């Protein structure tokens, strides 16, 4: 984004706004006697749909904070996520996190909410973490609401399918890693059966962790089989 701004007072006003929108080093300013040029590069926000069209995955809005907070305070949702189980989360803190996620979207992390397209109801979240664009790798995951209206409908499979597709095509990744505790049997079975992934195991503080790796070539081959 490039703006040509005349007048020093206008430049100061726009400078203050854009410094809040895009942190360094994504903001640069160049001045001359005739005009002031302010260049801002802001990471784009994201929206994409699942293969069936039932789900939409998008960047979170500030208004999503209550929904996200409810999920991370639900013992069933975080039963296999030890880093969330003992957290003291607040609405204000969750809102601040959303602002941060939106600011650095696709840079190192890409937090997404999962929405039913027909009703626009939020039913979960997911996305990417630890993105390394140099090695073309990143982590991914999905967490759905615990109520029976959401679980058992195939939404997790669709959300992961869309996540893989977006990661390999739009983000240019070659490898996506998913981690879950061995005790999380439903997620482990999903990744084995539907995505034909075989985990590696490692011991962590919370127990035995399963590490599943989806390679781009394997994802393409899986689709060719289908």
Strand content: 25-35%
How many distinct domains? 2
Q: Look at the structure and give the mean pLDDT.
A: 84
CATH superfamily of the largest domain: Gcn5-related N-acetyltransferase (GNAT)
- CATH architecture descriptor text of the largest domain: 3-Layer(aba) Sandwich
Helical run tally:
7
Helix content: 25-40%
Give the low-pLDDT segments: 1-42
CATH topology of the largest domain: Aminopeptidase
| The CATH C-level class name of the largest domain | Alpha Beta
Describe what this molecule looks like in 3D.
The protein has seven helices and eleven strands. The protein is α+β, with helices and mostly antiparallel strands and 226 residues long. The protein folds into two domains: 39 residues, no CATH class; 179 residues, Aminopeptidase. The chain has an eight-stranded mixed beta sheet with strand order 4-5-6-7-8-9-11-10, sandwiched between helices. The longest helix has 15 residues. The chain is globular and about 45 Å long.
Mind sketching the topology for me?
Blueprint: E1 2-5, H1 8-21, E2 27-31, E3 36-40, E4 47-49, E5 55-58, H2 65-72, H3 82-85, H4 91-103, E6 110-116, E7 121-132, E8 137-144, H5 155-169, E9 175-181, H6 185-195, E10 200-204, E11 207-215, H7 216-225
Parallel strand pairs: 8-9
Antiparallel strand pairs: 1-3, 2-3, 4-5, 5-6, 6-7, 7-8, 9-11, 10-11
